[in-house]
Amino acid sequence: MLSTLSIYELAGGAVTEVLATDRLIEAPNWTPDGRALIVNGDGRLFRVPLDAPVLVRIDTGHAVACNNDHGVSPDGGRLAISDSTDTGQSCIWVLPVTGGSPHRVTGKVPSWWHGWSPDGEALAYVGRRDGEFGLYTTGSGGGEERLLISGGDHYDGPDYSPDGEWIWFNSDRGGSMDLWRIRVAGGDPERMTDDDRVNWFPHPSPDGRSVLYLSYGPGTQGHPRDRDVELRLLDQADGAVVTLLALIGGQGTINVPCWSPDGGRFAFVRYGPGRP
Fold it and tell me: Membrane-spanning residues where (predicted)?
């Protein structure tokens, strides 16, 4: 199975293939300087310089069971990872973006990182507590976790709006998997999509005008890999949705924030047979 790390240009819709590999890689983040992408694979994290695309391993210390929930702080200095080496379940850690010894952030597990606040002071993540999924925030250096919303339904993919006022997420709380948002300060969530598709992993654009997300066909259970999926863009002004690209993907394609710093591009991974 081939993993192809790619970039989509909003102006014109061109797709540039950055790196193709037989290794399973997932979930690209863009570094704030625009010079590299970060992906995970085989429990490790890798930096991919755009001027010479190869997988350069990032030292994550003892954390060698990293999953696809990771991301770079807004100032570019820190990297949040989700790793199960110590606990057997996903736990959030923060380390220097260049690599080094990670600092544990979440005391409770399982916890899966999904977003940095725009000021870099807080993290948004998914937790499962007493059998229920919920969305939480905590300080980027650790501390008490704060519950935003939870229940018997599924909650996933929390990502901050660029103004820091909202957290977007996906949930089946309305009967099907759709996009929602909730104020960081709390309150009732707002449903943002309502169609027959199965919609996951919303990522607000840096200018706040649109939201990129992953869309499966009707009836899909969970967020599996190697499916016919679409990358879609929701216009926040009028709610219009545009399909940007159809591809083989799913789990690993855009699980975490993937916009370029200027908002003109985003990174994604597609999957398929073949060899590089």
Answer: none
